[in-house]
Structure formats: structure tokens, C-alpha cells
Amino acid sequence: MDAKVRDATVQMGIGLPNGGSDVDPGELVRLAVGAEALGLDSVWVVDRWLRPHAPVAMPGVPVPVVMPAEYYRCVYDPIEVLSFIAARTEVIKLGTSAINVLLHPPVLLARRLATLDRLSGGRLVAGVTSGWMAEEFAVAGVPRDHMGDGFDDHLAAMRAVWGPDPVDHPGPRYAIPASDIGPKPCGSDGIPLIIGYTTPTGIRRAARIGDGLHPYRNDLDRLADELDQWREAVTAQGRDPSRLPVILRAEATPGDNGTGDGKAAFSGAVESWADDLARIESLGVDHVLLQFEPGLGVDATLRIMADLIGMSGP
Fold first, then answer.
1. Domain for residue 2, yes or no?
2. Domain that holds residue 40
3. Counting C-beta atoms within 10 Å of the first and last residue's C-beta, which end of the chain has fewer, N or C?
């Protein structure tokens, strides 16, 4: 396999279609192997436990909405998918975008992530969120009041698991008695936890406890404002925002129209996406992953990414 990684200022990755009514494992592998051969930096998978038939309450949305019928009808587990991909690739980074960590016991999740990191030779990047859907918390048997401070303690417990033995985490919510727990990740600093958000409170929490920020945005003006908030909050914590990566997730919707200033980033004519890359670079984004509609197909997706690489330099 002719595996390589791009040498560019903004790293680029793609989302693998691990959700939908007809996920094809062979196509997941073909897309990941093709992405690595192109020299893309990363592949990513989503996490979703279920798609309720009734409308659900979403953060920031005034009325309940029905979840997308196709993509969330059947979502292959992110850790198993990335383990499958790790066995067929060599250097490309493997990311979760993002795991809803509060649905999982922290010791179990930490061990599963560390196992994947070991199996892949240290290629894992863990995008994480607390989760938000009441129905998923209910089926996981986790009270929703674990959101907030419980998220802080969950990440602290996972980091303790990845630290030296004996692991001894006092809680307050996820106490771990002095124990030997393995495996440990490849890196001595553990696995980077890149935090997603939906609210200003989430931005401040990411600034306080995250190893980086994971926005999900196509509106770059809104993104610019949120990055200003995050950097100000990081600095207030006595931390250096330039040392914390920003990994942007964006929908990729190629089409025949849309090249003006008012269009959403990574929509419309692919020729205009080079301008979108230049804009996010100017905002200090380190890494962007593009999520295409599954129906586009592997070959078309890779052609678009090859064109984008050609426009953005070597």
C-alpha cells in the first residue's frame, strides 16, 4: 500500500458513512484505504445509539424535531468500525466525531479507546461530547443530570485510567479504587480528547478541560465568533490556545451552484472550496473533516477530495 500523509497547513479528513439504512463494510474500507492513498490525514465516524420515531428535543432548537430517517436508522459502532479500518490502513489518523461519553462507563470506554489506540499504533483522536438526547440517556440507564460536572469527572476518570498504575480516582461521580487497569494508550500523555459543543457553556468547558475544540459548523462567521470565545476562555484558564488543536467538522454538499460570499462553506461548486479552506486557515483551524452524503459513493467522494487537494497545494 502506498500510504502517505499530506504536507499542508490545514489537515484534511473525511467522515466514513458508518450510518444509514444500508451500510456496506467493504465500502467503508475502500473509502478509508482510498483516503490514505490520496494522502488525506484522517477518517472519522459518528456515534448514535438510536433514532426515536417520535420527535426529540434538540439543544438550541425551539420545537422537537424528527431525527434524519436514513443516516441514524442504523449506525455501526464507532470503535468497532475504526478497529476494522485500522487493520486495513497504516498511517491515517482514526477519529471519533464524536462519542457521547456519558452513555458509557468511563473505565470501560477508556479501555476500549486504549485498545483501539494500541491496535492502530497510536493513531486514535477521540472527539467527545457529553451526549444530549434524553432517549439515549434513558436506554443507557444514565441520569441526564450527569451532564455538566459529570462530564468533567468522566473525562478525569478516563485520563486516570490511562495514567500509571495503580489507578486511583476519588470521584465524585466515577470513583475508581486503587487498581491496575490496562491497556494504556501508546502515548505517555494518553489519548487527546477533542471536545464538541452546542452552547457557550460547552465552549467554556472545552476551554477548561479539553485537549482541543471540535466545532460542527458550515457558517464560518459563526465559527469565527465561537473560536474567539474559546480562545478567550482558554487564555483565562492560563492555557495557550495555540497549543490546542481546532478540528472542524463540516457537511460537504457539492453542487452546480453557490460560489458567492453568502453560501455555506463546502457547499456548491467544489472550485469554491479552496476559498473555504483559506478562510478556515485564517481562523486558525488546524484540521477539517468533511462529511459527504453516503449516496455520493466512494469514487465520487475520492475524486472530489483529490480535486480539493490539488487546489490546496501539496
1. no
2. 11-312
3. C
